[in-house]
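Hi support team,

I'm filing this because I wasn't sure whether my run with calcium ion finished correctly. The job status page said complete, but I'd like someone to confirm that the output block is well-formed before I use it downstream. Pasting the exact inputs I used:
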Amino acid sequence: MSSTQLSSTRSAGSRILIAHRGASGSAPEHTLEAYRLGIDQGADFIEPDLQITRDGVLICLHDLTLERTTDVREIFPERSREGVESGQMVGPRTERRRTERRWYASDFTLEEIRRLDAGSWFGERFRGARVPTLSEAIELALRRTGVFPETKGPEVYGTKGFSMEKLLVEELARHGLDRRGARPATPVTIQSFSAESLEILGSQLGSNLDKVLLIDSPDRDGWLTREGLTRLSKFANGIGPAKALLREKPEAVQWAHELGLTLFPWTFRAADPGSFPSVATEMSYFLYDLGVDGLFTNDPGQFPRSPTSVTNG
Ligand code: G3P
Ligand code: CA
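And here is everything the job wrote out:
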């Protein structure tokens, strides 16, 4: 991709505020309430993570399973199955695997998921909040803000016969959002930890929407090197590194910009500003000292639109 393809974002020329799972520091993640609050707090984008229901509908949910953020245990007590909770090596070839009962979103129809309460785990005043569909999230965002959807676990859904990428492009098309710049008040950028998912979107589905590759810490695939970023620039036009990676390697900001790539580190939380005195100063350091293009935060109300004095960090 060339730098001339860089779009698109609503706040061109200024820093971009992405409400991570909505304003998820103040409202239950991935509910319309959290997205609405993020928009009210000035977010340039809301950020839906995507999962797929048994009947093939894209919903906004971070985990593959429902039990952390809904009351599925109480509503469907018999509908769990065993899932691997964690794996721990206890010898050179022996792994102790702890299993737990899990309620996979892909085992439930949309009609069933609509019965779940996705709010009261966060706070009683949010009781009755629902797991939204991507379509509902887009409807909320239209004409007000952008959408930054993440394909989550697309390979898992591939084994069930679903193409998350195709479903996403079809849903965006239903709202007239499947081409870059189609509705300028509602830009769309697609993100994924899966390079393959972004490649499918571009080379197989022909999507010209902006694409951001998420990079976890540690950077096992070496994306955050000059060579890695050059490879990445063939199928994406932005990177989303875990913020710790940029603390370790701030020179990567310049390398990425030289290739015409945008940078959106994650995740900035008021509850954990690390070595900074506040999340506002932490965000300011990344935005105005390191020079990233925008960031993901749970607390959009604290996003600094201009540099905030940083004496620590
Ligand atoms: O998408 C950026 C950031 O949200 C990645 O982490 O696990 O919150 O989706 P996660
Ligand atoms: Ca995400």
